[in-house]
Write a structure and sequence with these properties.
Structural class: alpha/beta
Helix content: 25-40%
Largest sheet: 8 strands, mixed
Strand content: 15-25%
Strand order of the largest sheet: 8-9-7-10-6-11-12-13
Number of helices: 17
Length: about 450
């Protein structure tokens, strides 16, 4: 089991957990994980079969029931029986990600109000699922959460502030960094407290914004995490993060940036490090936290996926990028990242490219949040000349960027992400209504 980031002084009521799993080694590891008194969780019963688990629930020994899916011959009936017996929380644990029953189990768990989790996932994933246990007879808030705000409650609903937006693509060169920077500038100019964390192995955010790269950034954060174990749970961790930020001031706003660590040091970032980092930025009071990533499947990215409220799957209008995006979705499914957190962004679209957006969108199966036209005069040319600025104007890239920003973090009068149209507006070739297509000259 991985270490779980915790917050001291939660003062939460204890939740009694029961496990039905014949694997004694896993049971021992789970017991060690839940033994931390700061979590407010206790493994009260470990049983080898379903009847014993049902008996423990009926006797009031446990409130949250964890069941190995291998023991559930009829999952739907089992979930109903546990609910009827009085279990306030039911979690099915899947040991094999290639289990052919996985889609059916997910549907049955959703219908029964249960969770389906990979049993060997990061420890905080399981802990957060248990912590969502409602208070019996209470107001629906998680147990021990009365009047408090920790990581579980700080992670917002989609469309509400604060937001953690992770820009990701398994294919390099699709414009992830440029998109992350421009979204950050857009939100900062709107008066939102905005942070941009560069988790890419060869990060280019500092280069795009012409920021100093020595003495601050993710390198100093990782040093603190290694030198002071448990510091992420302390209030001073927020102060460390503020000191590590580099402020990019521009006319109309300020974007706070955590510049990338050197490549060799970036490899030392674990998934829990990334999760603790993003949780700390939320506690620091940022409205929007943007995360730029690299294309490899690193632990940094896995931790960012776990903390994200939106994952922006970014692709360019070519078949290779779409294929890589499909592969990325298989990885996200294996990591049990909810499909509802994923949206598609098409970047650098040109009218002379034979790219069927409707076919790609239906094949990938997630909402299309935005389409950004190729605009070298507004994006690439200024960046190459060392004066990256937020594009302005009523048409073209600037207008498309504003629409995307509105969909991801709705402001007054903007549509919410849950109300994304089935097909976002796509301009007809040559028209200037919303997007000015680049001239062929």
């Amino acid at each position: 089991m991985n270490d779980v980031p915790v917050v001291l002084g939660w003062n939460r009521s204890e939740i009694r957990v029961g496990l039905a799993d014949p694997d004694a080694v896993y049971a021992a590891e789970l017991g060690d994980l839940l033994s931390d008194p700061r979590l407010g969780l206790r493994l009260a019963a470990v049983v080898p079969d379903i009847p014993s688990l049902l008996a423990a629930v009926r006797e009031g020994k446990i409130q949250a029931a964890l069941v190995d899916a291998g023991l559930a011959d009829e999952p739907e009936r089992l979930l109903a029986a546990l609910r009827e017996a009085g279990a306030a929380r039911v979690i099915l644990l899947v040991g094999e990600l290639n289990d052919p029953r996985l889609p059916a189990l997910a549907e049955q768990a959703r219908a029964a109000g249960a969770d389906l989790l990979y049993k060997y996932a990061l420890g905080y994933t399981l802990v957060d699922a248990i912590r969502r246990l409602p208070v019996p007879g209470g107001n629906g808030r998680p147990a021990g959460m009365e009047g408090r705000r920790d990581r579980a409650s700080a992670l917002p609903e989609q469309g509400r502030l604060p937001q953690v937006l992770v820009v990701y693509s398994p294919k390099g060169g699709v414009g992830k960094s440029t998109l992350a920077v421009h979204l950050g500038l857009t939100y900062a100019r709107r008066g939102l407290r905005t942070a941009l964390a560069d988790l890419a192995q060869f990060g280019s955010v500092a280069c795009l914004l012409r920021l100093p790269q020595r003495g601050k950034g993710l390198s100093s954060v990782l040093t603190i995490l290694r030198q002071e174990p448990g510091v992420a749970a302390a209030p001073r961790f927020v102060d460390y993060l503020r000191e590590a930020m580099v402020a990019h001031r521009f006319p109309g706003g300020q974007l706070d940036v955590l510049v990338a660590a050197p490549p060799l040091k970036a490899d030392q970032f674990r998934a829990e490090d990334a999760e603790q980092l993003l949780g700390g930025l939320l506690r620091a009071g940022y409205d929007v936290v943007l995360v730029d990533t690299s294309s490899e499947l690193s632990e940094r990215n896995v931790g960012a996926f776990a903390a994200a409220t939106r994952i922006l799957l970014t692709l360019t209008p070519d078949i290779a990028a779409a294929w890589h995006c499909l592969q990325a979705m298989e990885v996200l499914q294996a990591l049990l990242v909810p499909r509802e957190r994923q949206v598609l962004v098409v970047n650098r679209l040109r009218r002379d490219v034979a790219f069927n957006l409707d076919e790609v969108r239906s094949l990938i199966g997630v909402p299309l949040a935005g389409i950004l036209p190729e605009a070298p005069r507004r994006v690439q040319v200024p960046a190459n000349r060392g004066r990256l600025v937020l594009p302005a104007g009523r048409f073209g890239y600037a207008a498309a960027l504003r629409r995307l920003a509105d969909r991801l973090c709705p402001q007054a009068g903007a549509p919410s992400p849950q109300q994304l149209p089935a097909t976002p507006w796509v301009p007809a070739p040559g028209r200037r209504e919303g997007v000015a297509w680049p001239s062929s000259r």
